[in-house]
Design goal:
Elements lengths: L3 E6 L3 H12 L1 H8 L3 E7 L16 E3 L2 H6 L5 E4 L6 H11 L3 E4 L2 H18 L3 E2 L10 H8 L5 E7 L2 H13 L3 H10 L8 H4 L2 H15 L1 E2 L6 E2 L7 H9 L2 E12 L2 E12 L11 E8 L3 E8 L3 H21 L14 E2 L9 E10 L5 H11 L4 E5 L9 E11 H12 L9 E5 L4
Parallel strand pairs: 1-2, 1-4, 2-3, 4-5, 5-6, 8-14, 9-11
Antiparallel strand pairs: 7-10, 7-12, 10-11, 12-13, 15-17, 15-18, 16-17
Helix pairs in contact: 1-12, 4-5, 5-10, 7-8, 13-14
Length: 434
């Protein structure tokens, strides 16, 4: 049997999980493939201090990724280092040496995935990237092949497990954001610098990839509107509960006749919706097709083993292609070529909104706020106020009927300048379609 030989670059959580699966599931993998998948080289900056599974006792260990890329007994390079600088060099060098590539790198794929795929095609090798979004959920395969006969109209996702863990803990325990963030860091869910997760940038990269798969558009992360979860407080979950909603960091992509609307931001989702039930560090993606209607995909969004399964599955798919010599490939972006994307501003859409205020209490506040909304032709839906003894920092909520977001933002900007405001109003969309 002709084996396919693998070089692993990066032995962090994902790399270590990948090696563990390749070792522990070796026989089953060989049975499925019909030939062995053998690791011949591993690389990391601390590779000589790493304890590898016994199955890999004799592999080449190196701190120089170039040795892996150039190694004559490496057919596939698994790039598992992350980031956009060294990772790009690794992938480009692998392509130049005629090696197929498997990557879990969401940031690089979101920025340059289409260009790297074009290079891979030109070199006659493959580029696989299932692990770049949603860890253990095979959402790439679903969009690329599983429902490729449908036309995706909308896509919603909870794509950042760290943020979802924080929001779930805040909701269930009434704990403040800063406290839960520290706990998440202690548990290893959040990095020392949590900005990528809690400010929405990690989820934005993932949405850029999924939107490219779903719509066949070359999506730039910078074109996606993004807000993070730092301003969410326990009181927001109390009011959301009264309104029959939960708060999630929601990735949303919608097809329109004139383009696509893309956003990542905290959103009120109805309690009865499937995405509202996604708790903790789990991820989920809901897809609405023109012909196939709604489908939901749920699982662990990160972690050594769930993400390692995605990497190993990609290694197996690429290995089959290498052995079969198939000249035809399904693009990792599900389309032969991606069209150039012209982003639409999210401000053109109509949504109901949740507005949370913190004010120094005095007569006439509701009248002043209602007057500004009326000037912008925004209609009130409800006013909610929980009992509070602190009159110099009084919270309450106004919900408004579906309105053009541009008008709502203009109203909120006006409100932020009022002298009784303790902080600018918090405006969250209320998603009606889930």
């Amino acid at each position: 049997m002709n084996e396919v030989r693998v070089g692993i670059v990066g032995l962090g959580n994902v790399g270590s999980g990948t090696l563990a699966i390749l070792a522990g599931n070796r026989e089953a993998i060989e049975q499925k493939l019909g030939f062995p998948l053998r690791v011949t080289a591993v690389c990391s900056r601390a590779v000589h201090t790493k304890t590898l599974p016994e199955a890999f006792a004799g592999v080449l260990r190196t701190t120089d990724w170039r040795e892996v890329v150039r190694h004559p007994e490496v057919d596939v390079v698994a790039e598992l280092v992350g980031g956009t600088s060294v990772a790009r060099q690794i992938i480009e060098a692998a392509i130049a040496h005629g090696k197929s590539v498997v990557t879990a790198n969401k940031e690089l794929i979101a920025l340059e995935g289409a260009e790297l795929w074009d290079r891979a095609i030109g070199a006659g090798i493959n580029l696989a990237m299932e692990a770049s979004v949603a860890g253990g959920i095979p959402i790439h395969a679903v969009l690329r092949e599983g429902i490729s006969g449908d036309q995706v109209m909308s896509l919603w996702g909870i794509l950042n497990g760290t943020s979802n863990y924080i929001l779930t803990e805040m909701e269930q325990r009434g704990a403040p954001f800063d406290s839960v963030l520290r706990e998440a860091q202690g548990l290893g869910y959040a990095e020392a610098d949590p900005s990528a997760d809690v400010d929405g940038y990690d989820a934005r990269s993932k949405l850029a990839i999924l939107a490219a798969l779903a719509f066949g558009e070359r999506i730039r992360p910078a074109d996606i509107y993004v807000e993070g979860i730092r301003r969410i407080s326990p009181m927001d979950f109390q009011y959301a509960r009264k309104l029959g909603h939960r708060i999630r960091l929601l990735c949303a992509a919608h097809r329109r006749d004139d383009g696509f609307l893309l956003s990542v931001r905290p959103t009120l989702v109805p309690v009865g919706s499937m995405l509202a039930s996604v708790m903790g560090a789990y991820n989920a993606v809901m897809v609405k097709g023109r012909y196939g209607a709604d489908t939901l995909y749920y699982g662990r969004g990160a972690g050594p083993h769930p993400t390692g399964v995605a990497v190993v599955s990609d290694l197996m798919r690429v290995a089959r292609e290498i052995r079969s010599g198939s000249p035809e490939r399904v693009s990792p972006f599900a389309h032969e070529r991606l069209a150039q994307h012209q982003p639409l501003p999210v401000t053109i859409q109509k949504r109901a909104f949740y507005l949370r205020f913190r004010v120094q209490d005095r007569p006439g506040i509701i009248a002043a706020l209602a007057g500004i909304l009326a000037e912008k032709r925004v209609s009130l839906d409800a006013v909610l106020q929980e009992p509070c003894d602190t009159k110099d920092d009084l919270p309450f909520v106004i919900t408004v009927e579906p309105t053009r977001e541009e008008a709502l933002r203009e109203a909120v900007d006006r409100m932020a300048g009022l002298d009784f405001m303790v902080e600018p109003p918090l405006a969250l969309p209320m998603e009606p379609q889930l």
